[in-house]
Amino acid sequence: MTARFREPVHAYYGPTMAYAVSEWSDVNGHAGPGFMLENVAVHPLTAAGALPGFGAELEARMAQLPYLARTAVLLRDRSRGRIQLDADGHPRIAYAPDAGDLARLRDGILAAARAYFAADAVEVYLPIQTAPPLRSAKDLDAFATAALTPAKLCNLYAVHLFGGAVMADAPARGVCDEDGACFAARGLFVTDASALPTNTGVNPQVTIMANALRIAERVATRGGRRG
Ligand SMILES: Cc1cc2nc3c(=O)[nH]c(=O)nc-3n(C[C@H](O)[C@H](O)[C@H](O)COP(=O)(O)OP(=O)(O)OC[C@H]3O[C@@H](n4cnc5c(N)ncnc54)[C@H](O)[C@@H]3O)c2cc1C
């Protein structure tokens, strides 16, 4: 989400992220729908990728860079993707956000837009190709029930990727067991984020490191063999 203000906010200086709204989160004691708002720095590359429009339209918006602020809507998704090998043995990744996730994403976008208008933004740009800039909170009404599609979203991406080689209790349900030992390859252990079966809903580095340490201890105890 991007908003334009009357006065320069110079959001390319300072910390990349400085504040967050956690009231819609579903972890750490919160019982919300499962998204958070986090401000992000307005660097030229990321701003250009998040703004709707191309060519002269995008150029005009980018010329306003000092006046722009940006917020990421972090969704704790429930959709399930799939990784398969194609006929040539190359991995093919399929990930289609389901209707529930897209609706919660829309609600997060609306919440961010409302916050920007409450802070007196002149315009708010939805991260949706073809969507016109919004000038007031009233403009949000038309969007409140709109169905999002992944193809229309300018900047849908993930930085917390899990589940490429999940831990499971049986080979039919995963790649490795709870100790990271691969079902199909003796002596091979998975210790990175790909072993986590679902997203954590919080920043994951500490969990990933703790899991790697846990598995390393088991490897040492088991002598690097499964079973
Ligand atoms: C922009 C961004 C911001 C983030 N911010 C946070 C945050 O604030 N807090 C937080 O907790 N998490 C954050 N994360 C998530 C976190 O960085 C990742 O979840 C975590 O680093 C994953 O750890 P990993 O060890 O599984 O994989 P990685 O850290 O990605 O490590 C994989 C390593 O394998 C190497 N590699 C890949 N292929 C090969 C190969 N064929 N041969 C040899 N080496 C190879 C790579 O070079 C890399 O060093 C962020 C991620 C991104 C992208």
Describe this structure in words.
The chain has 227 residues and is of the alpha+beta class. Helix content is 23%, strand content 13%. The chain is built from four helices and seven strands, in the order E-E-E-H-H-E-E-E-H-E-H. A five-stranded antiparallel β-sheet has the order 2-3-4-1-7, with helices on one face. The structure holds flavin-adenine dinucleotide. Flavin-adenine dinucleotide is lined by residues 159-160, 192-193, 203-205, 208. Flavin-adenine dinucleotide (FAD) is lined by residues 159-160, 192-193, 203-205, 208.
State the main characteristics.
single chain; 227 residues; alpha+beta; five-stranded antiparallel beta sheet; two-stranded antiparallel sheet; 4 helices; elongated; binds flavin-adenine dinucleotide
Give the number of helices. 4
Question: How can the largest sheet be summarized?
Answer: 5 strands, antiparallel
Q: Major sheet: order of its strands? A: 2-3-4-1-7
Q: How many runs of DSSP E, i.e. beta strands?
A: 7
Helix content: 10-25%
Overall 3D form: elongated
Terminal Cα separation, in Å? Answer: 49 Å
Q: How many structural units, i.e. domains?
A: 2
